[in-house]
Amino acid sequence: MSEAIETIEGWYALHDFRRIDWTRWRGLSETERQAALDAMHSIVSAYQPSSPDAGSFGLYSILGHKADLLFCHFRPDPKTLGEFETMLDKSPLGLVLTRPYSYFSVVELSKYLARGISEDQIHTTLKRRLEPAIPDRPYVCFYPMNKRRQGSDNWYMTTREERRELMKNHGIIGHKYHEDVIQIITGSQGLDDWEWGVTLFANDPLPFKKLIYEMRFDEASARFADFGPFYVGSRLAVQDLAQLLS
Ligand code: 76R
Fold first, then answer.
1. How many angstroms is it from 185 CA to the middle of ligand 1?
2. How many angstroms does the Cα of residue 198 sit away from the middle of ligand 1?
């Protein structure tokens, strides 16, 4: 049996994608629309964590047909994430939102490249990554992925040393985009349908394409990665959402 790598987990993540049901929205009375807009303001402010230690939240407008909005939450307690979902569902705004996709995962760092660092050091120096603030970048890209288990391309049958080497090269490519792209890797084995969620943040969508394209040629992705749907969008202030609806 090949040996699993130790992972360190941080905050839980919920990527809550919603679609606006325009037919339903147009069918609402003026009073109902106002109630939905009011609910939106109170919900978005309820989603804001009371302090940076309590969690983080970002609202995004998603491009294309797969979703309209992304409510992206990171929180220490998964129960809070559940409360947020139902808060939105029960509110007057929930009436006009459907739910094309969601993803539940937990911020994950693996120890492939962390030789000689003590558990304590990892926790202090990496706290910022385990408990991430939403980066101040206008664009987001989210997708789930697996590591392949097929014939000789079975990630889970490779040795720890092979995986370490592959992740080292992966990290080298990734690091070239250090300035342009901030990545949050969340693990979801046993939590959702894929094995990892990848959330990337940048100033415009092009670096997502460049980075992901370059990684496709790297063995860790070329041989071992399978991808789910990609969602790309831009940060939305609550007043922009009001404008979008009104
Ligand atoms: O954590 C670190 O920064 C150390 C190096 C590193 C690890 C261990 C790293 C760096 N990643 C790691 C783990 Mn990554 N990453 C992805 C994707 O699209 C694809 O082909 C793959 C999706 C991207 C775009 C990306 C970006 N990474 C992982 C893992 C867990 C694997 C495991 O545990 O088995 C996955 C699934 C994954 C996927 N990665 C980086 C990046 C970038 C940009 C970096 C460099 C970060 C920096 O130096 O700023």
1. 7
2. 8
What residues flank ligand 1, with Cβ below 6 Å?
A: 5, 109-110, 112-113, 145, 147, 167, 170-171, 174-175, 177-178, 181, 183, 185, 196, 198, 211-212, 215, 221, 225
| Distance (Å) of CA 224 to CA 76, 86, 163, 168, 220 | 31, 37, 11, 15, 5
pTM of the model: 0.94
Share of the chain above pLDDT 90, in %: 87
Task: Provide CB contacts within 8 A for 184, sequence distance 6+.
Answer: 13, 74, 107, 129, 132, 198, 199, 200, 201
Q: In CATH, which of 3.90.1300.10, 3.30.70.1030, 3.40.640.10, 3.40.50.2300 is domain 8-245?
A: 3.30.70.1030
Return d(Cα 37, Cα 31) in angstroms, integer.
10
Q: Whose CA is nearest to atom 42 of ligand 1?
A: 174
Mind listing the pLDDT tens digit for each residue in 124-155? 778 999 999 999 999 999 999 999 999 999 99
Q: What is the pLDDT of residues 179-196, one digit of tens each?
A: 999 999 999 999 999 999
Orientation angle between helical segments 206-216 and 160-176, nearest 10 degrees: 150
- Going from N- to C-terminal start, the domains of the chain cover 8-245
Per the document, the length of the chain is: 246
pLDDT for 197: 98
CA distances from 132 to 9, 127, 228 (A): 12, 8, 23
